[in-house]
Automatic annotation (TrEMBL):
Major localisation: other
Originating species: Thermosediminibacter litoriperuensis
Protein name as annotated: Coat F domain-containing protein
Subcellular location: Spore coat
InterPro entries per UniProt: Ferritin-like (IPR012347), Spore_coat_CotF-like (IPR012851)
Lineage summary: Bacteria, Bacillati, Bacillota, Clostridia, Thermosediminibacterales
Similarity section: Belongs to the CotF family.
One of the GO biological process terms: sporulation resulting in formation of a cellular spore
Length: 90
C-alpha cells in the first residue's frame, strides 16, 4: 500500500516538473502576451511547489540537508518496500 510519504514525494516531484515545464515555456514563448500568461502560471506553480515542499519537510518526508547519495538510497529502499507490498498482494 502506498503511504502518505510516497504520495507527498510524488506530488513534490510533479510540482517540480511543472515548474520546470513552465520555465521552459516562458523562455520559448513567441509573444509578450503569452510570455506574461506563462510567467503568471510559473509563479503560481512555484508557490504550489513551495507549499508541498514545506509540508513534506514539516512531516519529515523530505530532508533538504540530505546528500544525493542518501536520497537515492532512501528512494531505493522505498521502491523496494512498495515492490514487496505489490508482490505480496498477488
Amino acid at each position: 500500500m502506498i503511504d502518505d510519504r510516497a504520495i507527498t514525494l510524488d506530488l513534490l516531484n510533479t510540482a517540480k516538473a511543472e515548474v520546470m515545464a513552465y520555465a521552459r515555456a516562458v523562455n520559448e514563448a513567441a509573444t509578450p502576451q503569452l510570455r506574461e500568461v506563462l510567467a503568471k502560471q510559473l509563479q503560481m506553480a512555484q508557490e504550489a511547489q513551495e507549499r508541498v515542499f514545506n509540508f513534506a519537510k514539516k512531516k519529515g518526508y523530505y530532508n533538504a540537508n540530505t546528500s544525493p547519495e542518501q536520497m537515492l538510497n532512501s528512494d531505493i529502499q522505498s521502491a523496494t518496500q512498495v515492490l514487496h507490498q505489490i508482490t505480496n498482494l498477488r
